[in-house]
Design brief:
Rossmann fold, 22 strands, about 25% strand, alpha/beta, 2 domains, about 400 residues
Length: about 400
């Protein structure tokens, strides 16, 4: 089973914010993702969440007292793949910017060579203060990744910019940072997702059941391997993955235009979107009233995005079929001039629209087939990128 943090050592630093309770959920999700998690807390952080909570969740090292820890902080700092401070108070941000080492959190950051991520959480007036902003800019200039904060209801009851980013956002940011040196680093890829909507009138459209989950998983997996990812997405109810540039579109023609534009300089295009094959020949300006017993729509073909996308990059298509899976997929592979096609039977259990899993067959242009078992869509995406990477020109090593 592919887990996004497998084999990674993560130091989670918790400071004295009321949002500290969310760090317990973050620690739990990191463990579920396969990471080793060690926790360091400021004394104020330990007042909000007892160290015992993190010991129970992580089964790892948990340190508050910098004097009792002796040299253990050095070992934590050395083995860390990333240090994540969530939540980070204004006080901690100031200490980090000034290079102080007054607690286990700032001490660990000074001792590590791993990437550092800071997730601020505080009252909006504290966050907006010129000193806090200057301290954050100092950290950015040193290569620290700043995640958040977000708009929302604060501990004071006010609404403003200061809430700790959601756990899923922070997890995505960690994956983004950890993957920066992956096998897709330095490469631009374009991924399409979702089902296009072809308008009939201002309130109706011709569409399909695509949830966009497969395309978003493909985009996330590419990001986790270091790619510069452009996600051209039709309407979905999914959050934009951290570190991925979203281009929102509605119609097939809009997706075509975006793909043509974004594929300039790209090394791969993965067309995971369910593009409508037909669109109304004309769109009514006003809502069509329910008066006649029948309604006839004249449909015409939508643009062939793969045919118009251009050349000079690897092309991957998807074939969602309800019958003759392999035969139809091979026909599409040849007709579109694809390097790979991913075929899935939408009638099979666990493989339909909206599911979190998929069972696919990856077919290459030479006729080779790789049948995958039922996997999560993220795992399918990783297996697909394994194939794509093997087809891309080898990168030159940096001197």
């Amino acid at each position: 089973m592919t887990t996004p943090f497998a084999g990674k050592s993560i130091v989670l630093a918790v400071t004295g914010s009321i949002a500290a309770f969310k760090a317990a959920d973050l620690a739990s999700k990191l463990i579920q993702g396969g990471a080793r998690v060690d926790v360091v807390l400021t004394p104020a952080g330990a007042e909000f969440v007892p160290p015992l909570t993190f010991r129970g969740l992580t089964q790892g090292t948990v340190i508050v007292d910098m004097f009792a820890a002796a040299e253990e902080h050095i070992e934590l700092a050395r083995r860390a793949d990333i240090v994540v401070i969530a939540p980070a108070t204004a006080t901690t941000i100031a200490r980090l910017a000034q290079g102080q080492a007054e607690d286990m959190v700032s001490l660990t950051v000074l001792a590590t060579r791993a990437p550092v991520m800071v997730c601020p959480a505080m009252d909006n007036q504290m966050f907006e203060n010129a000193v806090t902003q200057a301290n954050l800019e100092t950290l950015r200039s040193r290569g620290v990744t700043i995640v958040g904060p977000e708009e929302g209801r604060l501990a004071t009851g006010r609404l403003g910019l200061g809430r700790l980013s959601e756990t899923e956002t922070i997890l995505g940011a960690i994956r983004y940072v950890l993957g920066r040196e992956g096998d897709l680093a330095g490469r631009k890829v374009v991924v399409t997702a979702g089902g296009t909507r072809e308008p009939i009138d201002p309130v109706r459209y011709v569409g399909n059941y695509s949830s966009g989950k497969m395309g978003y998983a493909v985009a996330e997996a590419a990001r986790d391997r270091g790619a510069e990812v452009v996600l051209v997405s039709a309407p979905v109810v999914l959050p934009t993955p951290f570190g991925v540039r979203l281009v929102a579109v509605g119609r097939a023609a809009e997706m075509r235009d975006a793909v043509v534009r974004e594929c300039r300089g790209a090394q791969a295009l993965v067309m995971a979107a369910a593009v409508a094959d037909y669109q109304p020949a004309a769109t009514a300006d006003q809502k069509i009233k329910r008066r006649a017993p029948t309604l006839t729509l004249k449909l015409e073909r939508t643009p062939d995005i793969l045919a118009e996308a251009g050349e000079g990059f690897l092309k991957v298509g998807f074939a969602a079929e309800s019958e003759d899976l392999l035969a139809n997929a091979r026909l599409k592979l040849g007709a579109k001039g694809l390097d790979l096609i991913v075929a899935n039977d939408i009638t099979a259990a666990g493989s339909g629209f909206g599911s979190d899993t998929n069972r696919v067959v990856i077919i290459d242009r030479r006729g080779g087939e790789e049948q995958l078992p039922l996997l999560s869509k993220y795992e399918v995406a990783q297996r697909l990128w394994d194939r794509i990477v093997s087809l891309l020109p080898k990168r030159r090593r940096r001197r």
